[in-house]
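Render Outer membrane protein assembly factor BamE in 3D.
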Amino acid sequence: MKQCKIWLAAALTAATLSGCSVFDKLVYKIDIPQGNFIEQTQVEKLRIEMSREQVEFILGRPVLRDSFADDTWYYVYQFKSGRSGEITRKELIIKFDQNRVASVTGDYTLSEQFDTPLSTSAP
């Protein structure tokens, strides 16, 4: 009889501990967005030789400004889905030369007009 109680207690403990994972699908988990959400249309507005102020007006403040390379801005976005746990990460790296855009790299497509600077002279 005593051995039966021990087996029953062990089975109850195992069922209780495994019960948490059974109901995991029913628990609501929020989506977690972090960083700068940038749309493709914003990136298409970028042009070579834009000033830092113009870039900041279009994209907002960067998540990271490298303290050792002041001429590099990082726009990083990460999204973790609460339902599936899938993580999506996108980044955009802008390098400046003499406070003007020199290059743009990352997970976004640049427009065909990127290499054409904006007109700086008034008509």
